[in-house]
């Protein structure tokens, strides 16, 4: 199956899941998330944030309310309809737009932070995706991929036939990737200072889930960027 066909099927799946997505994932301590994001992004809120696979705007609305200029992008229109509703309720000025993480509608070297949550395991053509993210990232900018992982192991999705289509599911190249494989994905595509950091306390007590980790890397500063 060609990539375009795979993306269409994935889009249809998340459109269908949109009505129940928030209820299924209502386990998060938003205050803890806000504190963690503020710490990771730093105090200079004049920087911009791109939230990939924004879904219902969970991260994008938080970073916007922290003061960062934020855009959320997703292939699912139905998910983003909910993101816009949440933004109004939260008085967030995040902007939402349709797009694929494999081909982003932004110029080179224009984004300070690329963030995402629960996206990394869904990637098809992960090397293509990371190269595309790196293209639009400013020198010195950072990529941060949040996901639950099994400590000391890596992604632990444990789902079979996720998209109810074997041809689509076979495209999920890294859904069970180990931590060292995830670090290698970023390093081989040109990111530096790559690390995986555990972020405790993001899930409200009483929920038995793998802990949250963030996979991070930085775009190397070039001599030209240092001079400018």
UniProtKB/TrEMBL annotation:
Q: Which GO terms describe its molecular function?
A: S-adenosylmethionine-dependent methyltransferase activity
Methyltransferase type domain location, by residue?
50-145
GO biological process terms on file: methylation
Task: Identify the species of origin.
Answer: Acetobacterium woodii (strain ATCC 29683 / DSM 1030 / JCM 2381 / KCTC 1655 / WB1)
Locate the transmembrane regions by residue number.
none
**Keywords from the UniProt entry:** Methyltransferase, Transferase
Q: Which domain of life is it from?
A: Bacteria
Q: Identify the InterPro entries for this entry.
A: Methyltransf_11 (IPR013216), SAM-dependent_MTases_sf (IPR029063)
Q: Which Gene3D superfamilies match?
A: Vaccinia Virus protein VP39
Q: Which residues form a coiled coil?
A: none
Q: What is this protein called?
A: Menaquinone biosynthesis methyltransferase
């Amino acid at each position: 199956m060609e990539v375009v066909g795979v993306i269409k099927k994935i889009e249809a799946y998340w459109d269908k899941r949109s009505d129940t997505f928030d209820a299924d994932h209502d386990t998060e301590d938003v205050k803890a998330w806000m504190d963690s994001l503020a710490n990771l992004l730093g105090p200079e809120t004049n920087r911009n944030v791109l939230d990939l696979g924004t879904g219902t705007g969970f991260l994008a609305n938080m970073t916007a309310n922290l003061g960062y200029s934020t855009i959320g992008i997703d292939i699912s229109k139905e998910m983003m309809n909910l993101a816009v509703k949440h933004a109004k309720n939260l008085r967030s000025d995040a902007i939402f737009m349709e797009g694929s993480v494999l081909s982003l509608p932004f110029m080179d070297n224009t984004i300070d932070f690329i963030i995402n949550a629960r996206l990394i395991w869904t990637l098809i053509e992960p090397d293509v995706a990371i190269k595309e993210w790196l293209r639009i990232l400013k020198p010195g900018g950072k990529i941060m991929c949040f996901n639950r992982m099994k400590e000391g192991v890596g992604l632990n999705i444990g789902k079979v036939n996720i998209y109810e289509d074997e041809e689509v599911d076979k495209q999920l190249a890294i859904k069970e990737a180990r931590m060292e494989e995830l670090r290698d994905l970023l390093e081989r595509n040109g990111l530096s200072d790559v690390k995986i950091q555990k972020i405790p306390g993001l899930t409200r007590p009483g929920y038995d889930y793998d802990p949250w980790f963030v996979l991070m890397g930085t775009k190397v500063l070039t001599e030209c960027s240092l001079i400018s």
